[in-house]
Here is the input.
Amino acid sequence: MNIGHVIKTLRIQRKMTQEQIALEADMATSNVSRIEKGQRQPSQKVLQKLAKALNTKPSTLYAASEQPLEDIADFLRQEENTEKNVGTDSLTFTQDTKILITLFNELTPNNKSLLLEQLKILHKWQTKIGQ
Here is the structure.
């Protein structure tokens, strides 16, 4: 099991730096580097933070780490496509909604949280004005 290789592969797929991951996970960049190099195994708590920073689930990281090294990148891409499509097959979206979902999925986890808070405030404001 090489969880560090999985984290590095997913980070590169997401076009993120170690610094960005460390910032999102609230940890030192050197720790991310050591984990990626296999010099340190992440605790469950650290793994959860890293998964959140990478916009995935810890179970996906574990499952990918069980794959042969040469298959990890493809496995992660397949999992990402599966996660994006879960629950949306039976829904019909307008073009605006599709664009919104695409843009939202490209945000970092921290920016997703910020956007959701802003949307809640905007919705609350609109409800008050509409009454």
Remarks:
- DSSP finds eight helices and no strands in the chain.
- The first helix runs from residue 3 to 13.
